Amino acid sequence: MFTAAAGTVLSLLAGRAMAETVHGVVVFTRHGDRTTKHYGAQTLTNLGTTQNFQIGGDYRARYIESSSPHQILNISEFNYVPSQIYASAPNQGILLNTATAFLQGLYPPLADLNPSIATQTLNNGSESTSPLNGYQYITLQGIPPNSPDAIWIKGDDNCPAVTQASQSFESSPEFTTKLTSTREFYQSLFPVLKSVYDITSPEDLSYASAYDIYDLINVARLHNSSFSISPSQLFQLRTLADSAEFAYNFNASQPERSIHARTLSSAILTQLNKTVALEGALKFSLLAGSYDAFLAFFGLAGLTEVSESFYGLPDYASTMAFELYSPETRTSFPEEKDLWVRFLFKNGTAGGLDSWPLFGTGRESLSWGEFTREMKGRAIGSAEEWCSACGSSDGFCATYTGVAAEMFTRGGMPNAIAGVVGAAVTLVVLGIVGLVAFLFVRRRRSGGSVVVMADEKGSVRSGSTGAGKL
Q1: Which InterPro entries did the record assign (predicted)?
Q2: Could you tell me which of 137, 85, 150, 148 has the C-alpha nearest to residue 289?
Q3: Which of 52, 256, 270, 427 could connect to 165 by a Cys-Cys bridge, CB 3.0–4.6 Å?
């Protein structure tokens, strides 16, 4: 997969690598091998963590090591420098761990890179090394769910429009045809799945659960020694899951299905813009997300027109990168007119990091100006725009819709709401005045002060004390 144009592309890259200067890169990565989604609460396996670590090492070899012709200009080769690196992932254990493992590969422990700088000599002559052989603690920005920042990496979460548009696929002729034509194949898997899948009859298995069935079987074949399925069956399950998941995440005539690709486009452009605005000070940005954002972006960016492979699910630990460079050797950051952007995709740990043309241009690189225009034309650029596109008024979207929007945009409450609030405040004030008057009268009658006390059982009771008796 993903090799149709790779030979030509790689030869072009090799031929001119020495005449280029890379200034920054944004990488979007998928998690590695994990437990199945079918049972929920999925986590990275040891294999998955290793895969993400390996991918981080691959990007280190390309962009950070001094021996690489693609080393980012003036990036720190050994020591992690916070101002040069940005990393972000949703507050989900599997994605936070994905980013962490990637970053461990990007900047391994100092003792593994350069022992001479991993140890510090103190004034008394003793030597000190940080724990774990000089482990480097790279800052990772965790994004809380249901916050405006969450939409940039997972713009499909809590988005009614995405849910409705995706579900409409199940009413399409394409879905109905696949459901009918694959019924016999799925029902033939009943003997294999009945002990691990919550089903009671063969009729419970169908194309309607294409990804869930494939995912469960794919995980089982790697981690369950008693599970067996033929390569041809697995291949058919994979291709059916490919077709279903792509359709759920992209349809050119129904842009609501790919809202998450539009927010991701904005996140990518924002990070590259920071590199440009800071004249190369920000050098490497990492975003960790899910396969659905890959598929939606493949469709949105026209990559399926270049290769049919982009209709398929990206493998575990797949990455796509956006490389900002100038087509000549430089020692300083260039003017914007001299900047170019290249898109690269690596399918899992085995594939190469290959360049592909975006937006139907047929060109592997776009000028910074053209790339910016193309991305902006597809991107959702604000939380308010996302709320509108999603048709959402919940959570933070209430700021932009209905009563809250009227209060914020007009600088005050609507008359009806203001009347209700005013009446409530009046009642509260009158209640307080009445209570004070009641207490004052009791004190005058009893000659004492009112005291609230607790008895031995902890219940509250009232009482009064004589004057001067405390």
Answers
A1: His_Pase_clade-2 (IPR000560), His_PPase_superfam (IPR029033), Histidine_acid_phosphatase (IPR050645)
A2: 150
A3: 256
Residue 237, exposed/middle/buried by CB under 10 A (0-12, 13-18, 19+)? buried
| pLDDT band per the 50, 70, 90 thresholds, residue 228 | confident
Q: What digits encode the pLDDT tens for the residues 422-461?
A: 545 455 545 554 554 554 444 444 444 333 333 333 333 3
Q: How far apart are CA 129 and CA 116, in angstroms?
A: 11
Token pair recorded at residue 383: 């939380």
First to last CA, the chain: 87
Distances in whole angstroms, Cα of residue 51 to Cα of each of 104, 310, 316, 317: 12, 21, 8, 6
159: left (phi over 0), alpha (psi -120 to 50) or beta: beta
User: Residue 324, by phi and psi: left (phi above 0), alpha (psi -120 to 50) or beta?
Assistant: beta
| CA 439 – CA 432 distance, rounded (Å) | 11
Model confidence at 134, in pLDDT bands (50, 70, 90)?
very high
Residue with tokens 């005449």: 19
Q: How far is CA 304 from CA 101, 246, 310, 395, in A?
A: 30, 10, 5, 35
Cα separation, 22 vs 325, in Å, equals 4
Rg (CA), the chain: 30
Please give the model's pTM, rounded to 2 decimal places: 0.83
**pLDDT value of residue 198:** 86
Tens of pLDDT, residues 67-82: 999 999 999 999 999 9
